[in-house]
Amino acid sequence: MAAPFKLYSVHQAVRIVNGEEYGIGLEDRGIFSVVTDSRKAVTGSLFVALDGERSDGHRHINQAVQNGAVCILADKNKAGLYRNVELTGKSAVIRVDNPLASLQKLAEEYVSRFPSLIRIGITGSSGKTTTKEILAAIFSLSDPTVFTQGNLNSEIGLPLSMFSIRPEHKYGIFEMGINFKGEMDILARIFRPEYTVITNIGTAHTGPLGGEEGIVREKSRIFSYFSNKSIGFLPEEDRHLEYLKSACKDRFVLFGENRVSAVTDVEDLGLDGWQMKCGGENVRFSLPGRHNLSNLYAAVAVAEYFAIDPVVIRRGIESVSALPGRSRIIRSGITIIEDSYNANEDSLAKALVYLSDLPWSGRKIAVLGSMKELGAASEKIHAGVGEMILHTGIDAVFFYGEEMGAAYTVLREKEPGFKSFHFTNYSKLENSLSEYVESGDIVLLKGSRSMKLEKLVNKLSNGEALKGYV
Length: 470
Description:
The structure is a single chain. The protein is α/β, with parallel strands linked by helices and 470 residues long. It folds into three domains: 8-98, Udp-n-acetylmuramoylalanyl-d-glutamate--2,6- Diaminopimelate Ligase, Chain: A, domain 1, CATH 3.40.1390.10; 114-319, Mur-like, catalytic domain (UDP-N-acetylmuramoyl-L-alanine:D-glutamate ligase); 328-461, Protein-Tyrosine Phosphatase, Chain A (Alpha-Beta Complex). Helices cover 33% and strands 20% of the residues. It is built from 16 helices and 22 strands. The strands form five sheets. Strands 9-10-8-11-12-13 form a six-stranded parallel sheet, sandwiched between helices. A six-stranded mixed sheet has the order 17-18-22-19-20-21, sandwiched between helices. A hairpin with a 4-residue loop joins strand 17 (328-330) and strand 18 (335-339).
């Protein structure tokens, strides 16, 4: 069994963040992991006490110490919350002005130790995680590769992900997601991607980022540390393509149906994904929908650029499977398309088109949760969803959330006879949907993460209160 990898000594961490150390004789103790959840602290952890929306980490320092944390990164202005913590001579506290900024500084310094790591950053309004998973599946079969676990792609998640880099890694593939102005500058400074993938530019986080034009400007900050060998991989049909080309200093490779030579003879298998040839040989890609095919093109374009063996590309493609909440297909008496991890105007429209075009003998039902972080445009965008429904072959729609009331109102006004329902209470949504669906139906679940539509999966798939369920 390999020895634990030492990230820092306590003394090194103090120096990097320019902090004040409290804890005598611990300067040479090793830090082997970095966590922001006190429950995940173990022997040798650095616990970063962050003030979150639900809880202040400073109130959980004692738990982190009891779990074995060797070091605590804490706000020096909140000493009253941890003054009475018993350090037992085994833990040190580094007091700083801003624990989050210090976490980011630690991650930035850590990444700088690996100058030979080929750094690939992925951003976009949707498809980041799926593209990352496809890339990681391919590159990991070729060379030692480190990549984002889950979707740790924010100002907190990305720095935490950096600490998984090791000397043996050739490639680092990391998501970089943003939801406020200036966040990409922070992420780019930490990871400094040499190669970048922009999956698409849409309407995710429209409000905080200042509309779609604000989104493209902020996303383009991922090119901030480009050198004369850097490349941006850009979607060939994106409406902001010319801006993106300029932003990456015209150092780009386009991806899409007409650009990726390795992928040919693509056949749509509906819920079973796609059949295609890659390097002249048959391969099946299990994720359904054209949006996922675009993600595949992005990943293969990067693999082609790095001259990955076509055999390896095929094996990587075949190994990819859907993550919970992202185009996951659950088959039972009722078939479920669970795409509930996140939603914006563009991704919701693509999901509706996919459901509408899907050959299906039973009824097609959409459960659409509110889309968050749309700012002043929220009502207009949600009203547009009602318009979208009018042009689909969907049999019924269940709207959920206050914001989706605008969609329901438009749909009822323009097509009073359409089977549409609106709920702001989850229990009422669940009960009504359970009474409505029957064996042979297909149900799309799509909404922002905070709507928690994944809770419907168990209800729909285990046969509870399902009319006609076999």
